[in-house]
Design a protein that fits this description.
The protein is mainly alpha-helical and about 190 residues long. Helices cover about 60% and strands about 0% of the residues. The N and C termini lie far apart (about 60 Å).
Amino acid sequence: MAPANDGIGFRADRIDGGAGRTGAATPLLFDAFVAEHRDRAVALAWRLVGGDGAAAEDIAQEAFLRAYRSLHRFRGEAKLSTWFYRILVNEVKRYQRWRWVRQRRAGEVEEEPPDPRPVGGDPALRDRVARAMALLSNGQREAFVLVHLEGFTVQEVAALTGRADGTIKSHLHRALRRLRELLADLEPGREPTP
């Protein structure tokens, strides 16, 4: 199978030098990959962890580091970006497990910090949507964010998360149904309930 091209001239045969060792061009090529994908990686991590900007930066940095250290295992069967975003999603899951253990030991539930980036629109509406998203299960939120906010296909999300297509579709269906219930009064033409 031919190596996947990620649009930046990053080819698997140039990564491993054809002999299983990292070639000299790898750091420069990986730097280009990081520059192209950094903002999206941080934004995706931010959405998946529920708005914690510091955690999102740390998760993205750790995902890039893990990807760099694992370049020798990249086989070129998928796009490099798909391979990387699977690493990122796994880093988010690792962080969520760590946060859950830490909160459980402390006997507390932390409030998520607000988004540090300035965003236009209605702050009350953004807060309401964020609270509704926080009520979704991790799997539902992950599927919703990756498909509807990040633009991945169901098949790409299945590959990123290591789940079956049907599982992703089920999570999406449940997430959409739950969000419609929680935000039903925002539907145009619907009268607010007293």
